[in-house]
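== Sequence entry ==
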Amino acid sequence: MPRVLGILCVTATIVSLLTPTAANAAQHATGAQWNHVARCESGGNWHLNTGNGYYGGLQISAQTWASFGGHHYARRADLASRSKQIDVANRIYAADGWKPWRACAPSARKH
């Protein structure tokens, strides 16, 4: 019986990690907020590559892009779609809030 109980506990933990909760939802910014950040960071050009080491509409560094799973979508943020950039940005946001976009965050927070 203890073995079954252990399996049930592990299963419950996995399900709770995979099930969206209100807390998880609070860790994501909206598409409108990301559009404001992109307008500030890149003039709204989701495929911007100026050669400065930051890429895409949200100007994510290659290292950060890779660290937050971006390589599953593309080699760099500028090569990924807007929705994929937002997906990775929301992972960054969940970990660091608006800190990586502190210069552009004030306008994004309003939306």
About this structure: The longest helix spans residues 2-18. The radius of gyration is 17 Å.
